[in-house]
Amino acid sequence: MEKDISVLGATGSIGRQTLDVARSLRLCVRALTGNRNVDLMERLAREFSPELVAMAGEDAAKELRERLFGTGIRVETGEQGLLAAARLDAATVVSAIVGAAGIRPTVEAIRRGCRVALANKEVLVAAGSVVMPLAKQCGAEILPVDSEHSAIFQCLLSRGGSAVSRILLTCSGGPFFGKTRTELAHVTRQQALAHPSWSMGPKITIDSATLMNKGLECIEAAWLFDLPINKIEVLIHRQSIVHSMVEFEDHAVIAQLGTPDMRIPIQFALTYPQRLPMQAPALDFSSGMALTFTKPDTEAFGCLALCARAFEMGGTAPAALSAAGEVAVYAFLEQRISFLEIEGLCARLLDVHENRENPTLEQILQADAQARVWATQAVELAAHGAQEREGHREKQGGGK
Ligand code: NAD
Ligand code: MG
Questions:
Q1: Are 8 and 88 in contact (CB under 8 A)?
Q2: Residue 3 pLDDT exceeds 90
Q3: Is the distance from the beta carbon of residue 126 to the nearest atom of ligand 1 less than 6 Å?
Q4: Is residue 81 within 6 Å of ligand 1 at its C-beta?
Q5: Helix count (H) and strand count (E) of the chain?
């Protein structure tokens, strides 16, 4: 294929799978970005010989620059480096940085009016109100990489002019499907990281366990497909075979099915409107496959409703929620707060958030930064409270 791509977040789960696809399609890779993983980036740079490599971490960039000395590959650092990578005139930019760090580089690519293969859902969650009109204005084509959104996009290709009555967004249910609120209070980091069907980066894996990921995906779908959030219905589908469905006004439902392999939606975002062969196992329908669908347990998993609430609030609320959610997830991964405290912290954030309507990108990023400060303090308080309770229990236990 005669196509060139730049991969933002090349060292991550989506980034590496994108490079698998690039390898098999023999795509020209123009720029790669990472954060701190120098060994992997050095290997990728030597294999793909991009013009530019950017590492967000300063020390990592310095070390990489020394290692790549003499190769002719430019090594840049920090946010300026990420922006430079997005600015190179590749036909497609793959946006696969995790979290809000991906917002500015993605916006920079959109401004060029190129194709953006979008994996980073936080970009649309936080800044959909700015990003979608900007893409239209600049003639940028945003193609979803997230498997559910790729599925919806594919289902909508058969739309003609028909109106959509519902989107049925499927959800594996994560590792804690079926657990009660009381049981969720005691789950561990290791249990939360053991996703039943997908192998992904740590942030989205924890978001999949709380169902925050599905809530963020509802917002992502509302922006991508220009639909009110109440037309997007989440369905638990444990097998992760039906990646999502679209119901039209005549109640005909179109679904997209496939093995749970992210290279399929990634490749489609790169090659659309073409479909090219994929070196991955095909679905085997003759093996007694059963497909089941149920409603999510919204009482046990409150993050779904929090996302809908933030989207209805509009303005800077989704950006603040997404930023606080990031802080909470990393605090849980560091075992500083409990699993349910991720949701608790996000709920309190929405209670105190001073919403700003019709925000600019700068105001959105400001709301993100403020929510991070608030959430970091909330983590300190929660961690301190937990320590005190632990100390109290030990004292009581010692007295018996
Ligand atoms: P990951 O943690 O595996 O990779 C993240 C990438 O971002 C890495 O290259 C890392 O170096 C880079 N990065 C992290 N922090 C950075 C920073 N501060 N500045 C610059 N770069 C930074 O994550 P992932 O699972 O590949 O997910 C990437 C995005 O794609 C997320 O937004 C996620 O929600 C979305 N997504 C992932 C999957 C999946 O299967 N992994 C599926 C759907 C959507
Ligand atoms: Mg998804």
A1: no
A2: no
A3: no
A4: no
A5: 16, 11
